[in-house]
């Protein structure tokens, strides 16, 4: 048999049908691909597999969940919602007027207790609700080029309506995001002593080094009639304005937390903290809540019971299903591959 | 059924149908003229206004007319039209057009996404489609190029000059040599054969392998040499180019005479010259205007049912899209408010219109458009191109290269001629099959005979063998060692061979029997006059078989002249002496379907006048002389025995004619023959006068062998829930015979026979009033149908009632297809297990097919091998052509071509089923992955104040379909196998899942949609909720792009893992594609996030990956998302298993490779035995009392009927005379042997 036909001998005897036919033979060449005989693993979802997979998932997930939960539990988090507390009682029905007024005193003080020892670094967050930083008009209202380099100062097309001053000067940083920069400020005193809230390294490195230029300085910012939020120090380049950088990494949801600063000293349990809050930012018009959060962090990040609980829940559910399937198979067994289950055997009349 | 008949019937059918190919004035004309008239010959045909005039041999004179050149182009595009035309084709697809619209929309400010999101996938899809088009077109172009550059001899300056086909022009005189193809439609001027005759083979055109005769006009016979031909100056006026293959009208104005031209002078492009040294012809039609090219255009393209259902799914997706957009838009109308001061809703810039609470209607409208662009990914743009690719590979790599469908004897692999219908093969419920050449081999073999009341022939037919073995008798077949094996002769009985018949009880009968076989026919001998080399040109293979039989019995018919038949007889009286005997043929009484017999009056050398007659038993018995009752009775028994063995029978009889009686009869005959009115009828009447008082000699039995493995295949297909209808031109009895033989009908079935051969109808027919006949038949058919239907219903209502079978003949069918009766016919036939339609015309075949296709909305498949099956093949959802001995016509019209009927099982049960399964999976998976992806976006919309903010980065979204999830779905489209090929055939019932469309029902789609919603909710809400408090270990929080990138990562992983869950078999390619897809996402993200420095997603993936939270999420989210699917699959498999799942389980320990290889061997070696054993198991239990009459093809009447076209006067006799003229020069070789 000639060599080229011997490779196809698996296809039967035809391979050797003689030299005359070989010349013009249209016989397809044998290959595993074209004969659809590629070696394959054929998993069958037998009860054994189902139960083992569920059990396996449960066994893997529960420890992960427990570990996460443990890590999350170790995080000490002190939330303090102040949006209503910081409204003087005479304005309680008219919070918007209070916050918009330039004459009212916005300073507000409060005390609260540290329940557990908090190891440094302690992160200070502000949390807003019902605030749509992910709104389409809001998200796109910035100029990435302008933020990055001085030369693109005029590039404000996306920033409308906060693109230029009425006399046509470009606003740096332009756009609604920058314009609505959060401007509440916090001071924390322990035993009468001011705690230093560090503003260094509160933004992602990538933002700071690549997205915000070190030669771009604020210009014409909040100079118009409408003031949206905080003003910027015009002598510090944008890459140094970490508050702005944090704010401009827009949040995914309408409830979000942003890093305000870091406290580099430990707080003992039962210490009284007194807060001095400059309550400037208007969330009252749309009913947004403002919360100050002090939190420590572990390997998992901040307090995030949800993740651990979810793992444990799903792990538990898997084990539950493993047991369920086990019981089902026990009480309603079906012999594997029993031909009597074939539809045409079950109701033979089906085929006319 | 003979090949001749096919052409004839197909041409007549197409002219009957209004939508048949080009029913122009020229076609209508011939049909109105009775074909028996010869008077048209001299008449100048009326010219249509748009006739063409061709000046022969005069290029200059033809120049002003600007005839088209002879180069052909089958390409769709050229360099300039490619882009616009191909793009236009692409945008005729709704999905592409939609994405074009979306792409345009996304350049406007209302779009939340950059144009790249939609443009990138669209251009990629278009690019692939265009590349495919270009590739296919370039292949066509190369073919054309090769054809156009074939060489042909053209007359120039008294010399034959070889030049490529493309340079041939209208009016050129060219020479075509033996076995050469005609480069254009030619007018035959001269041939090297005497009488200007040439033989052509038209297999390229209509699949006929029999030779046809074309004849030059007598006036032009001399123009054979280049010197002479160059003197030829004439003018041809003829019809404009048209696509009718069998008509041609024109005149040759030559030497101031007008000579009418007919199709007989026309040599069509695509045919080839045979048995003729060369011919000289004038080019009439060139290139695209040749009849064959005009015919190839406008092949109707078919779309599969599944694809049409897919359109509905796409529509449903559009509806979903609309609802989603509407919800979002209304939400946005409610949301917009001045209280969100930071959005500056009424700042008055151009973008604020959409958020201005002052005009909520505008907000809603604009947001609607925004959302449409945002959710565009719900329409799977790459679906069509993926499916196309998959189907293309399925066709070219799997179907065309399947070794199990390769027929080594004819060297034919299977051929998928279209890649549109692969999955349709998996859903076929009705098969319409031609009989001859499809179920049977169309290879007639002389098998048995009965002479003088004695049966000769030891062969055992499949049916007999089966019957015997069913009764427990083991048949020992001991064939003699020296059996003559010849095509057409499969006879084994030493008593008759080698002159041994002399010792039989009645040698005289034997002699007459053999003489009758040798003399009474219209066969033409061809080639050398020696028994080994001679070839017989016969109208039907039956006739050839009989003449071959005579040859083998020692009565070798070797020459025919106009007046005589020469037979080389091994004579009885002079032992062993061979003697050439010439019989003078005085009259030929031809066969036609009313006479069902054929007679020849001849004068023996000793002066005796003998009439030999052969025909159907019914007509012969009526005309037998009184007496000889024993022989009649015995022979009648033999006929029945032959009939029930599935053999085709003919009775042979003779009669000595007293000279005076003959003379008086012959006068009448000549008178009738020369009459101009009702000649045929008069001839029949005259024949009736002499064909009586016959003496029965015996009968012949011819076997029409079944194709290999037909009964097995039919049984397998029936088990698969497929109903098989046989549509045949044969007589009722023959058809039933074959139906028994191939397992379609058995005696346990209840048979309904609706035949026009009832007394009532016959009486009406004898009265001859057409209107009355029609009325009577219709009433009869109606009554029969009603009765049958009632019976059928009572049968069906009883649980164990018998299976039903319906046999109906063409005439009744014609009336049953009437709109008023059609419903009844459909109801009846759909309840029948098997249906046999006999005596149907090609048109009726198509009508029956479309009755089921349209009336019952079932998926139909037609299979056939000849030109008469073309209409049926085109009418059915899937047309399958048998590419075997019969040529290409059916194949040309078909969607799939296979070499043998038995390969149908593989084609349907393996390839069809797999393709269906795969395409279903591809479609539903596409649906799922896009829906999930888009729903996540939808949920996000709710949390962005319905602003239409995009969730995914532009590039992520645009590459989702075309890169990150593209490959795996191709894998499932190519490699998924629920059960192996061998098990697919072993459990044909699995096929029913396709017929019931189990895998692409709305229920299936709904389940996918449900899990899609579930998964998207999990994916979105888990990722977003958990991210609220998610920070890295340095306390930094996530922004929107971090969350979306995380979600995107989870979606890619989930969707790819979900893919693995739909696979029945996982090859390394699955793993590679899934792993590769996920990996490609990460690689892309790494590069993309690092390079695009200013983008939102800059560095996002690195930031994400620096958190533990990311890893916890990408483990957790896909698991939870797939949790539901997993539970569902577990429960479904355990409690509601599909059939294929049970089969998988049963055979879970088998290694597929070996079992399949073994099966492959079995398939190749043992099939005949297997087939036999199946034949045995399915035999009728009682002997049916019918005889199979051989010459029942309607086309038998006239040998060259098919090519007569308008003029149709030639009878076999004329042909015989013409053909014999050719042998004249060889007369001296009389005693060579």
Automatic annotation (TrEMBL), chain A:
One Pfam family matching this protein: CDC50
GO cellular component: endoplasmic reticulum; Golgi apparatus; plasma membrane
Residue spans of biased composition, Basic and acidic residues class: 143-165
UniProt-annotated stretches for the region Disordered: 1-29, 143-167
Ranges annotated as spanning the membrane: 49-71, 309-331
Biased composition (Low complexity): 1-22
InterPro entries: CDC50/LEM3_fam
Keywords from the UniProt entry: Membrane, Transmembrane, Transmembrane helix
Source organism, top-level taxon: Eukaryota
Chief location category: membrane
Cell compartments where the protein resides: Membrane
PANTHER family the UniProt entry points to: ALA-INTERACTING SUBUNIT, CELL CYCLE CONTROL PROTEIN 50
Family note: Belongs to the CDC50/LEM3 family.
Protein name: ALA-interacting subunit
Automatic annotation (TrEMBL), chain B:
Cofactor(s) recorded in Swiss-Prot or TrEMBL: Mg(2+)
Cellular component terms (Gene Ontology): endoplasmic reticulum; Golgi membrane; plasma membrane; trans-Golgi network
UniProt xrefs under InterPro entries: ATPase_P-typ_cyto_dom_N, ATPase_P-typ_P_site, ATPase_P-typ_TM_dom_sf, ATPase_P-typ_transduc_dom_A_sf, HAD-like_sf, HAD_sf, P-type_ATPase_IV, P-type_ATPase_N
EC number: 7.6.2.1
Binding-site residues, Mg(2+): 434, 436, 865, 869
Binding site residues for ATP: 434-436, 543, 591, 614, 648, 728-730, 839, 845, 868-869
Transmembrane stretches, start-end: 313-336, 361-385, 922-940, 960-979, 1000-1023, 1035-1057, 1069-1093, 1108-1128
Active-site positions on this chain: 434 (4-aspartylphosphate intermediate)
Family matches, as SUPFAM superfamilies: Calcium ATPase, transduction domain A, Calcium ATPase, transmembrane domain M, HAD-like, Metal cation-transporting ATPase, ATP-binding domain N
Top-level taxon of origin: Eukaryota
Organism name: Acacia crassicarpa
Similarity remark: Belongs to the cation transport ATPase (P-type) (TC 3.A.3) family. Type IV subfamily.
The protein, known as: Phospholipid-transporting ATPase
Catalytic activity: ATP + H2O + phospholipidSide 1 = ADP + phosphate + phospholipidSide 2
Lineage: Eukaryota, Viridiplantae, Streptophyta, Embryophyta, Tracheophyta
Lipid bilayer topology: Multi-pass membrane protein
Region (Disordered): 1-29
Main location: membrane
Domain P-type ATPase N-terminal: 54-118
Record's keyword terms, sorted: ATP-binding, Magnesium, Membrane, Metal-binding, Nucleotide-binding, Translocase, Transmembrane, Transmembrane helix, Transport
Coiled coil: none
Record GO terms (molecular function): ATP binding; ATP hydrolysis activity; flippase activity; magnesium ion binding
Compartments in which it is found: Endomembrane system; Membrane
Pfam assignment, any one: Cation_ATPase
Residue ranges of domain P-type ATPase C-terminal in the record: 891-1137
Biological process, per Gene Ontology: Golgi vesicle budding; phospholipid translocation
PANTHER family, per database record: PHOSPHOLIPID-TRANSPORTING ATPASE DNF1-RELATED (PTHR24092:SF180), PROBABLE PHOSPHOLIPID-TRANSPORTING ATPASE (PTHR24092)
